[in-house]
Design goal:
Layout: H1 20-32, E1 40-43, H2 51-60, E2 67-70, H3 82-85, E3 98-99, H4 104-111, E4 120-121, E5 130-133, H5 139-153, E6 161-165, H6 168-181, E7 187-190, E8 199-206, H7 214-222, E9 224-232, H8 234-241, E10 245-246, E11 249-250
Parallel strand pairs: 1-2, 3-4, 5-9, 6-7, 6-8, 8-9
Antiparallel strand pairs: 10-11
Helix pairs in contact: 1-2, 4-7, 5-6
Length: 257
């Protein structure tokens, strides 16, 4: 749209970063070339939009009769309440009450970290959650070893597996462990980068950082469709499987002695 308005296109800083220069360029394009505006805009993963992005989105709508459809998950919000950010728009809230992604056993764990309206699991019962307790320094090796076992002995396709970690450093360590064993897994990434995505099998490398943000645990365990593997210190795994809930808040695990 910026190019179509014959404006200079800002440099891309990083695959994960949309700079304010891009937002400013979009707003200038919409102001200068009103014919480029849209009658309808659909926003997916709307909880990932900072508040000032919505100003640009509003400027992209052609008229008051234009439609904005925003799909979001309040439990994956990292920029505050998306509902309050959208308060200025005339939106009709429609809730989705049925979980069609996860098995019931995965849903049971994910729901412990969920805050919001009641969600009902409509999927099959599913297999038991695999729990692999280990020391913090062993997480990368154990996660990589479990992926190799699933591929070689359970005939799971490497493309059906994702290994998720709270930090880029741990994700890098897991890739190194996989390389050393000659094992290929299609996705080894951070939990935040995998938001909105899914795989049949997800191995969560649950280092202590997973409890630093409320959304991390929910996002991590809910990415698995059919089988979930948890790797980490026992106290962290206990918290992931049965978090203490008080009203709508989930408390993190007790600090180590």
């Amino acid at each position: 749209m910026v190019a179509a308005a014959e404006l200079p296109v800002p440099d891309r800083l990083d695959d994960d970063v949309v700079s304010d220069a891009w937002i400013d360029a979009l707003m200038r394009a919409a102001e200068l070339r009103t014919y480029l505006r849209f009658d309808a805009i659909v926003v997916d993963e709307a909880q990932d939009f900072p508040s000032h992005w919505w100003v640009a989105i509003d400027g992209l709508l052609a008229s008051e009769k234009s439609f904005l459809h925003a799909f979001y998950d309040t439990n994956q919000s990292i920029y505050g309440s998306v509902s309050s950010q959208l308060a200025s728009f005339n939106l009709l809230n429609v809730g989705f009450e049925h979980n069609l992604r996860n098995t019931r056993k995965i849903h049971l764990i994910a729901s412990g970290h969920y805050r919001g309206m009641n969600i009902f699991a409509d999927g099959p019962e599913g297999t038991d959650i695999t729990v692999l307790p280990c020391g913090e320094k062993e997480i990368a090796a154990i996660a990589a070893g479990e992926a190799r076992r699933l591929i070689l002995h359970e005939n799971v396709s490497s493309g059906d597996i994702a290994i998720l970690a709270p930090t880029t450093a741990l994700a890098a360590s897991i890739r190194q462990a996989l390389d050393r064993s000659g094992t290929y897994v299609s996705v080894v990434d951070t939990i935040l980068r995998f938001k909105g995505l899914e795989r049949p099998v997800v191995i969560v490398a649950a280092s202590r950082e997973i409890a630093d943000e409320v959304e991390l645990a929910y996002v991590a365990v809910s990415r698995a469709r059919t089988h979930l593997v948890l790797v980490g210190q026992e106290r962290i795994l206990d918290w992931l499987r049965s978090p203490p809930m008080s009203g709508s808040d989930a408390a993190g695990p007790a600090p180590a002695d």
